[in-house]
């Protein structure tokens, strides 16, 4: 089992290339099931979750080829991957695959739309609360599908002539359920209107890709999306948008350590709220031609209160990282988590480094301390794991983070990117 050893105390200076977004790549890859032509995706990140989904899609009959690395590509090269699903060979997504990763459940939308049936295991993934699939089921039922749960699987069947367009309002905002309904509705007969849809950039990215494949979609990025069904989709070429969570994570790392770093290949519009929050905390962030420059000189870290909200609010996926930053703020800050009920598991681990955090329901009170001290800590989920890395970058002495497989699911070459900017981070294999 790998661990990561961090020796704290170094500023970050240099360039960190931002990878393609995991949360956009996964639904885009799943969209390849919607057509018998080839879907080519550029800027696909090297991550455990992507590799896992490649295996799952292969199981359904998708042929996958990856472009080799080119001479001109530097260390941080991104991949171009071609997905071709001439025929769907299996409409079952088995438990052993879906249990490893929640997003693989999303295949239910394309399978149902293209084949008229699907048998998909109920999902696994990070242990952050219940994250129910009811929203997916109700959304697909609105399009005329029959859904029954049988032995841990959902058996889904479309009506005889395929799915039928409908108007549906999500009872709460769900990115995953918006993705699935968007995909399913593109091949439904008639018009579908989705109200209270997720507005995240990743939803917009998927809609742009589906539109390039021939779908008729309006309103992506707003809370009402209208889809006019088409009979089939063709292939397309699409570039995965930059990862806003990775962008925000490294911006917080620079705000924590001090220094001057260019986050290359990303853009501010993907995370305006988080950037504004970081500015309030004392970082200077400017947009350049090639990305975002993050600077924090000698001034300290100021406390800021945040509430996590669906996009365009403060992302829940940056909550743990921001908490790590606030452990060193000059005063008291509060973080309220409104999205996931069980997303404060990193609190006790940060406390091991000397942080002063108290919890009351969905709110954490963080009293900034003047120093953190290195200690052995354990990652509990993907975003929590990187919050420990951020804290470790300033902690005195050595911080050892175990269970780093969580990190590998969402951060491409983390050690390498940080080390190039002066950090001391190394992976240790037991």
UniProtKB/TrEMBL annotation:
Phosphoenolpyruvate binds at residues 22-23. It holds the Pfam family EPSP_synthase. It is found in: Cytoplasm. GO terms for molecular function: UDP-N-acetylglucosamine 1-carboxyvinyltransferase activity. Keywords: Cell cycle, Cell division, Cell shape, Cell wall biogenesis/degradation, Cytoplasm, Peptidoglycan synthesis, Pyruvate, Transferase. The modification 2-(S-cysteinyl)pyruvic acid O-phosphothioketal is found at residue 126. Residues 7-418 form the Enolpyruvate transferase domain. Its EC number is 2.5.1.7. This is UDP-N-acetylglucosamine 1-carboxyvinyltransferase. It comes from Rhizobium rhizogenes.
